[in-house]
Amino acid sequence: MEILGLDAEAAVAKPQRSCWGEDRDFRSLINNDDSLTSSKSQITKKQFASSNFTRKTPPAVRTTDFHYDLPDELIASRPLEDRAASRMMVIDREKGTISHHHFREFPDLLPPDHLLVLNDTRVIPARVFSNDRKIELIRTDAPDPSNWWCLVRPGKKMKPGRTVEVGSSTGTVIETNDKGERLIRWDTPPDLDKVGQLALPHYMEREPEKADRERYQTVYAKEDGAIAAPTAGLHFTPELLAGLDHTFLTLHVGVGTFRPVKAEDPREHDMHSERYSLNADAASRMNSAPKIAAVGTTVTRVLEHLARDGQPFSETSGATDIFIYPPYQLKAVDTLLTNFHLPCSTLMMLVSAFASRELILEAYHQAVAEKYRFYSYGDCMLIL
């Protein structure tokens, strides 16, 4: 029996990367010690209290509908030496076809009437350790230079009133929020360029290296604020980008992009919020463009958030918690360049809304068979 190109044995085999069970150490940090564990049978306190949990209408899709098996050896823990040497799968939604290329071919494969929209956020070294190395913090937001919201490990030790020393700075825990984050007030803010590290994705299973400061950053990164890179943009070189009609917006990618979808019903997922901005020139260019090609899911989320009211784009800033999954119909984006995403993740659901879930799962099955490189430092796909 064939299931989306997988034989029955493979479809029921124990997954190498499950929807709930992998990467417990990282999840203990992003969920903090106050959160429930990543068991399939457990839900968050917020979900339990929500009246949505009593819904009787069956979901259109379930989280496990977006599962695929991925061998660990296909996870790219380090980048290629040449950014543009990545492989690129091309999916034609209208024809239902899948073909295999290299990213250097991107200018020839992108339809000529498209305006390319990229995210110019810059990744900051947001991860710091206490001087005694017993406390790990990741800055998730900074209302002002002296007050940081942080993910903390171990969280149980960092109660209000507790202090932590980082370099020559001393911070005091002021309060906690329902996400398990701590608001830390510093006497003098730590200098992240001196004491900070990149918060590399957990699946790389290594500490950041000097080369990551440059490679885990797009060549056009400009606006400080992201914790994670907008990875679809990592493939571009200045020379390749110079020949393409393009513009920029900003969305600061947060640690929420790594949060697992714990609920089997996607409607019960508490989607993270991320800050964005769009300037007047970029808005004008997008309004006049025949079609828009989004570089990455971050750009897609901003554009679809702004397109919900059906009005033309205009200069704006704010935050979006839009969660795109089937059967959502995209309104602003005509073509999408994206990397390969984790099973059962919000990003896997987004690309499945843009194309069909069946076509995306077949594409991922082919990518595994052809030994594509997966995730942040991996290869990419162009969805036409």
Helix percentage = 10-25%
Calculate the mean pLDDT score and round it. Answer: 88
Using the 3D structure, state the CATH architecture of the largest domain. 3-Layer(aba) Sandwich
- The dominant shape is globular
Element order: H for helix, E for strand = EEHHHEEHEEEEEEEEHHEHEEHEHEEHHE
Unreliable spans: 1-16, 20-28, 30-51
Order of strands in the sheet with most strands: 4-3-19-18-16-5-14-15-17
Give me the secondary-structure category: alpha/beta
- Taking the alpha carbons of the first and last residues, their distance comes to 30 Å
CATH homologous superfamily heading of the largest domain: QueA-like
> Measured on Cα atoms, how large is the radius of gyration?
21 Å
Q: Compute the number of structural domains.
A: 2
Number of H/I helices? 11
What is the β-strand count? 19
Strand content: 15-25%
The biggest beta sheet reads: 9 strands, mixed
CATH class of the largest domain: Alpha Beta
Question: Which features would summarize this protein structure in a list?
Answer:
19 strands, six-stranded antiparallel β-sheet, QueA-like
